[in-house]
Amino acid sequence: GAVVSQHPSWVICKSGTSVKIECRSLDFQATTMFWYRQFPKQSLMLMATSNEGSKATYEQGVEKDKFLINHASLTLSTLTVTSAHPEDSSFYICSARDRLAGTAYEQYFGPGTRLTVT
Amino acid sequence: LAKTTQPISMDSYEGQEVNITCSHNNIATNDYITWYQQFPSQGPRFIIQGYKTKVTNEVASLFIPADRKSSTLSLPRVSLSDTAVYYCLVGGARSGNTPLVFGKGTRLSVIA
Questions:
Q1: Which residues does residue A114 pair with via DSSP β-bridges, in sequence order?
Q2: E strands within chain A?
């Protein structure tokens, strides 16, 4: 099946620094990728929709200047958390839809990135 | 996007069949029903998708009544490794820009 990878799988950074998380579709092309954030014991919350070659669309309440998204190719999207603070500590997950697949609701998720800001 | 309602949690013993029901009263004509499984500290994994009647794969079965206002995910003979959160999602036809919107899901605990 389709595989989505994320790098790094976990990262610890100091408050005020920036962290970049990569999301790659390994064996399919993804025109659109999605970024989610998940706090402990909670569901996934959609942060933004990443479109190849264009600006990302952010959900209400998500700061676009803090969470920079770049979708440079059909297989790579990056999320940069700028000036990270402890409250940004969370589990970040990306997903992608195979543009040749059947329905939009059959999407593939990365393994997630655990971010801890100290 | 159709809103879904699922039980918050369920417990089951190993070897039993588990049925998780999801209500989606305002499902649209072109909406599909999709179930995902999520283990702790992992991304969700696609389990099964259906539009009507019954769908079965190597992992689960999905039962959808004629009115499509609910659906039931059936896991045969669960094991400890099936302990996870199960999400029911409704939406989408063929639109690549449609994100998945997750509800609270059902936390299944399988007991030895």
A1: A10, A91
A2: 4-7, 10-13, 19-25, 32-38, 45-51, 57-58, 67-73, 76-81, 90-96, 108-109, 113-117
Residues B15, A49: Cα–Cα separation, whole Å: 40
φ/ψ bin of B99: left (φ > 0), alpha (ψ from -120 to 50), beta (otherwise): beta
Identify any residues that bridge with A117 across adjacent strands, giving them in sequence order: A13
Cα–Cα distance between B89 and B22 in angstroms, integer?
A: 9
Quote the CA–CA distance of A84 and A58 in Å, as a whole number.
Answer: 18
Compute the radius of gyration of chain B from its Cα atoms: 14
Cβ contacts of A62 on chain B, cutoff 8 Å: none
Residue A8 or residue A99, greater confidence: A8
Q: How many CB pairs under 8 A join A and B?
A: 73
Instruction: State residue B104 phi and psi, 5-degree precision.
Output: -75, -20
What is the CA A88 to chain-centroid distance, rounded?
13
pLDDT for the residue numbered B1: 60
User: Three-state SS for A29?
Assistant: coil
Residue of B42, B89, B103 lying closest to A105 (CB–CB): B89
Note whether B61 and B53 are within 8 A (CB): no
Q: Which residue do the tokens 């995902």 mark? A: B36
Tens digits of residue pLDDT in A57-101: 999 999 999 999 999 898 999 999 999 999 999 999 999 987 676
User: Dihedral of CA A84/A114/A63/A4: which sign?
Assistant: positive
Cβ of B49 within 8 Å of Cβ of A104? The answer is: no
